[in-house]
Each structure stands twice: as structure tokens, then as C-alpha cells.
Predict the 3D structure of the following.
Amino acid sequence: GRTGRVRAYQLLEQLGIEGNAEQTAATLSGGEKRRLEMARAIASNPTFILLDEPFAGVDPIAVEDIQKHIQLLRDQLGLGILITDHTVRETLAVTDRAYIINKGVVGAQGNAEELINNEWVRQIYLGEQFYMQLPTKKTSPFE
């Protein structure tokens, strides 16, 4: 009904894709599709959502945009967000806690700084040359 359409438009607006409301999902860019997936995930007012590889196949500008929207969902809506992704820098930049799974077993867990400085994580997953500038403090990009 009308209420559902209004809610759907509000979600599209919140995620910055209201201009694409009349398009089919197949015509959206990679970043727009990711934001549409987020809108669909939060439509039922969940307390937790799963984002499966939200940074895969999108350009660097879209990655930044998706990161901002993940932070928005976390900070302003209070959502718990579980992210599965192989893009370490992009994922660690928006997570409070991360887990490194190797051969089906959690081998390490912690915040970005703890994982980056974990010798086992560097040997098994990140590589010795891995570098990432850590955020000085977590703030919402919308302030």
C-alpha cells in the first residue's frame, strides 16, 4: 500500500539512491546495488543485518560511500552489522571488532589495530608488508 511505498522511498532517500527509484535493480551501478541491498535489509527494522562482501566489485568512490552508509546504519539506527568480506582495509575501517577465520577456525579476533599488529594474522592473511592508516577516532561522517 501507500505506507509501504512511502517507507521504501524514505529508505532509498536515506541511502542516497532516491533518484533511482524508478529503475530496475539490473540497471544500477555496483555501488547503487549495494545501497539498494542495504535498504532492503533494513526495511523490516531488524536489530542486526548481514552484509555479504559489500565492497566487492565497486569503485573506490562507491566504497567510501558504502562505508559512510554502514557507519550511518550503525551510529544513527543502532544496527548491529555483520560483514563478511575479503577487502581488509575497507572492512577494518568500519568495524569495531573483526575475526580472522582460517580453515574454518577463528584464529584471531580484535579491533583493527590489534589484528594489524598480530604476528599470526600478518603471516597467514595480511602479509608482512600490509599497511593501513588507522582512524584516529570513530566519528560519524554525517556530523
Remarks:
- DSSP finds six helices and four strands in the chain.
- The chain has a mean pLDDT of 87.
- The beta strands are 48-52, 80-84, 98-102, 105-110.
